[in-house]
Design goal:
single chain; 6-stranded parallel sheet
Length: 303
Amino acid sequence: MADAQIEFGIIGLGAMGMGAALAGINQGHMVHACDIRESALKELADAGGHPAKTPAELGTACSIVALFVVNADQAEQVLFGPSGATETMAAGSVVISCCTIPAERARDLSVKLAEKDILMLDAPMSGGAGGARAGKLTFMASGPADAFDKADAALNVMGERVFRLGDEIGQGSTIKIIHQLLAGVHIAAAAEAMALGIKAGADPETLYDVVTSCAGNSWMFENRMKHVVDGDYTPLSAVDIFVKDLGLVLDTGRAEKFPLPIAATAHQQFLAASAAGYGREDDSAVIKAYRDLTGIELPGEKD
């Protein structure tokens, strides 16, 4: 348990948000959270957290609020929509935007929050659901020094490493988008390699063991292809997340007049998997697009 208990709020109890909330609770802190799903609020309450029915209700209790929502539109809604958190958050509070959004949308949120005398950190994160539950996320954070001062304790509860990227809102989002270029390409490449191996007659478990012991390995191959070998596509992330995030990568490339042929190809593979009905499955299910094209049998499947 930490030396001093802190109190903070989380909006969005998906895999990452729930993980971060549980990490705080397990360290002895007072965590409030809001989600539209009653099942998520019950899980939070059962773990010792404090559920809120609306973002506004959460805002009455918390001067530090972390957003773990899916996109910029959701962030806008939970902050400024009906029963939004800013209806009740006190002046001088801080919002930590942990979602992957365009840099310009992060800057827009910051301006609107400043009009209400609320600070913001542009602090998207990485580390996966397991990292979130262990309190070992990595934050790519930018924003004013006073926002860092107020949010530092909560960031250190949820994360193992906080990169301070300067005081310019948007830098955190930009670096996260570049990270997602690599993450999405690595997952798509890993799926392609595993699918080709299966098609050529390699045993999936043997292929996994060899690659993860050799130079061709990547963190994404090791993590996501384990899901494939186990035949488990329970969504820890999701195919549709990379439809969105690689879309943001391509938007950034267009804005910078920068060619992105590899990212574009990976985006098409995630789009294909989503169009085939796998959008809500774990992002490793991008391999099912190859299965549908080639007729391979994936682990855990039967003819």
